[in-house]
Design brief:
Chains A, B: InterPro entries: Aa-tRNA-synt_II, aa-tRNA-synth_II, aa-tRNA-synth_II/BPL/LPL, Asp-tRNA_synthase_2, Asp/Asn-tRNA-synth_IIb, NA-bd_OB-fold, NA-bd_OB_tRNA. Chains A, B: It is found in: Cytoplasm. Chains A, B: Keywords: Aminoacyl-tRNA synthetase, ATP-binding, Cytoplasm, Ligase, Nucleotide-binding, Protein biosynthesis. The structure is a homodimer. By secondary structure, the first copy, chain A, is of the alpha+beta class. Chain A folds into two domains: 104 residues, OB fold (Dihydrolipoamide Acetyltransferase, E2P), CATH 2.40.50.140; 299 residues, Bira Bifunctional Protein, Domain 2 (BirA Bifunctional Protein, domain 2, 2-Layer Sandwich), CATH 3.30.930. Chain A has eleven helices and 18 strands. In chain A, the strands form four sheets. Chain A has an eight-stranded mixed β-sheet with strand order 6-10-11-18-17-16-13-12, with helices on both faces. A five-stranded mixed barrel of chain A has the order 1-2-3-5-4. Chains A and B meet through strand 1, helix 3, helix 4, strand 6 and strand 7 of A and strand 1, helix 3, helix 4, strand 6 and strand 7 of B.
């Protein structure tokens, strides 16, 4: 491994020789002195080189080397990866971190094409075409550092609780959610379908007596829409636990996970988030407010917004309105909307005892947008089959799933959460395209 | 949440009232006394109930309840999930953990069908048909607890080193490895393909200046073979790091990850592994032995095995032989075979400086089976294009990938490792079907 020093570690070093590696962010090529801003994954540092513009005929090798270095810097294309050795010097007059490296030798590891295809003001679509360059911006890269920290904190909670990590198959023989949004795969002599969620398989783990499971993995929806919140492939954060009394137990776990995730992000990246996103990220307090959906719709109506939907569901503006209300009334960024109508929930959501028009379910709304759906599942096979029929589904097609319930299964529930949405809303971004490593949509499969 | 006590926590409790929940493993219905073995995700406990076979006419409610409980136990189908309250009693005469619970009340949460479709001696294929029942066996469930611990330890190392977790898309516009084993997806008006590995996308992160990345996610191969080591969908453990000098740096990281993973597994599950698998799992020592492939083939030949392949590769028996040699010579379960011929490596592996017939690559062999391929990648665009042409590939089709190298990229490398293979070999299993949550093969898409 090259013995380079990460830029973020320079501040703690005394003045003296160092090696740094990274890419060229800017070059200021003045007559007498050259400045290069070198950036690596941890930060940026100023390199300085007194220019040697010409040497006498017959000058010594050292002078020739100085000339070569000067010319190499003049020729440096932005984005080129370089390794530099030089003298670290702490100097409070240097704006960038109060230090600079006086260049002794320069190795251009790979030169970039001189013309950069995107600029700071390029459209989002153009930036996505050149995502690998877009991600060099500290702000874009920070998103994925935050995501790493967030996921690691969630997994820490799950592991601590003894839950089991599963990797469920993405190739299925039939639909897991709705036939309408299903991708079909040529599978040898037949067909397979891409999993729209790990729903059936994480429930299978409950029948297997696993007690509780989690998974962070891809899910696929053949959704032709082009909103800022939808993708054809997205990372779903899933968990499912046994022996619950109701969806309230799922919400309690959900809160605990979010608090742990936000705490870790605030601790590790709070200052950078304030710096690059202008956001003072706070850890949400528990419990998160809970509002039954019917009540939430009344609150929204009282605010003067009539939800233009024929079914019983919220719409995006309704979610924004109820979120605004919760922020005003409780000072909270999160709200659980509970007890959704059975008419707009999948067949496997458990219905209220005594009122089958409502389900033991919730959506979690964060800063005005739905990030997750959770529920207690129906584990009684006769009721489950009835509810599937109710939804116009053919129980025969669901045989493999229904079998999970025929040999005993504990009461259970869980949630699925869109990772990119959480990050989008946490950082005040306007599209999940910004918080997805490589976005996939109806017209985007590249890069 | 139900206030049940996990079975593993009973031992530490004093005698007294407890509630346990789980499924019925066995029932011994004797005339005077009934025994039920209840298992949950943490262990098994004996429940005991003095049988009440009949009550006098006009007996009190309590006596009727005792009769009802006795009859309920007699009717209990194996696998049914139950919640039991009763008196915990420590009694060293009880073989199972030195304790039992004297049953006070029994709630049959979900009754199982009385006929269990699989038995201990069922074929692997039959067991896979009923995977959710198969996974109730402590041995099968332990596999996924071990996997959870192993992955969490790996991620701990990556996070500690500052690597970034990425979720790369599984929907691609073209092949990432070989056209031959590519699944095709109907994608709106066109076609997409399922990623065979995150190779291109984890390299993209190096061009993006991420420094180092990791991913644990699905990979897909339309491989029609039915061996014990292949699946059409498998979990790939991937990492890629920048600023390496050679594949030696990748191997150093690989070793560090394996040692951390094995250490965590031994610490947390060593005793259970010994108990259920009869294996005394040890943490491998560093460094793992390294043998150049040419030398390994000579060693194998000297042992009397001639590899029946026309190309320069090892075959499975060759891998077993070299592993046996390493075990004899160095007492090690792991061996890095290095410097594979360019002819049998993908176009993106870097070739030796001075000998383009060899690559800066390795396979990691564990207990006789290849579990991973790693390499330094070629980051020089002109060389990379040349190597792609060499392999008969059309650089035009690789344009989006080749672009990653045109705007600067540091030297880098990484590996991909099959998770189910590691677990299979760690636990002495004979097929990855045993160590995959839900196996997918050419003729298996269910459950």
């Amino acid at each position: 491994m090259s013995t380079r020093t990460l830029v973020k570690n320079l501040a703690a070093l005394p003045d003296g020789p160092v090696t740094v590696s990274g890419w060229v962010e800017t070059v200021r090529d003045q007559k007498k002195v050259q400045f290069v801003i070198l950036r690596d994954e941890s930060g940026a540092v100023q390199l300085v080189n007194p220019a040697t513009r010409e040497v006498e005929e017959g000058a010594d090798a050292e002078a020739s080397a100085r000339l070569a270095t000067t010319e190499a810097i003049s020729a440096l294309a932005h984005g080129s990866f370089i390794t530099v050795t030089g003298e670290l010097k702490h100097d409070e007059r240097v704006k960038l971190g109060g230090l600079e490296v006086k260049l002794a030798s320069l190795d251009v590891v790979t030169a970039a094409n001189p013309e950069t295809p995107i600029a700071a003001d390029s459209s989002l679509d153009k930036r996505m075409d050149w995502r690998f360059l877009d991600l060099r911006h500290p702000k874009q890269a920070l998103i994925f550092r935050i995501q790493t920290t967030f996921l690691h904190a969630l997994r820490g909670v799950w592991v601590e609780k003894g839950l089991i990590e599963i990797q469920t198959p993405k190739l299925m023989a039939s639909a897991s959610e709705s036939r309408a949004e299903l991708f079909e795969v040529e599978y040898f002599e037949g067909k397979a379908y891409l999993a729209q969620s790990p729903q059936f398989f994480k429930q299978m783990a409950q029948a297997a007596g696993f007690g509780g499971v989690f998974e962070v993995g891809p899910a696929f929806r053949a959704d032709p829409s082009f909103t800022s919140r939808h993708a054809t492939e997205f990372t779903s954060v899933d968990t499912e636990i046994s022996w619950i009394d109701s969806h309230e137990d799922v919400m309690a776990l959900h809160e605990e996970l979010m608090v742990a995730g936000f705490q870790a992000v605030v601790d590790k990246h709070g200052a950078e988030i304030a710096d690059l996103f202008g956001i003072e990220l706070a850890v949400p307090s528990r419990p998160f407010p809970r509002i039954p959906l019917a009540e939430a719709k009344q609150i929204v109506a009282d605010r003067g917004y009539v939800i233009p939907r024929a079914d019983d569901d919220m719409d995006p503006e309704g979610e924004r309105q109820i979120s605004a209300y919760v922020k005003e009334a409780f000072g909270h960024d999160f709200v659980f909307l509970t007890d959704y109508a059975a008419s707009i929930r999948p067949f496997y959501h458990m219905r209220h005892e005594g009122d089958p028009s409502l389900t033991n379910s919730y959506d979690l709304i964060y800063n005005g947008v739905e990030i997750s759906t959770g529920a207690q599942r129906e584990h009684r096979i006769d009721v489950l089959v009835e509810q599937a029929r109710d939804k116009g589904m053919d129980p025969e097609e669901l045989e493999f799933y229904l079998d999970f319930f025929r040999y005993g299964v504990p009461p259970h529930g869980g949630f699925g959460m869109g990772l990119a949405r959480v990050l989008m809303l946490m950082l005040g971004e306007t599209s999940i395209r910004e918080t997805t490593y490589l976005f996939r949509g109806p017209t985007r499969l590249l890069p």
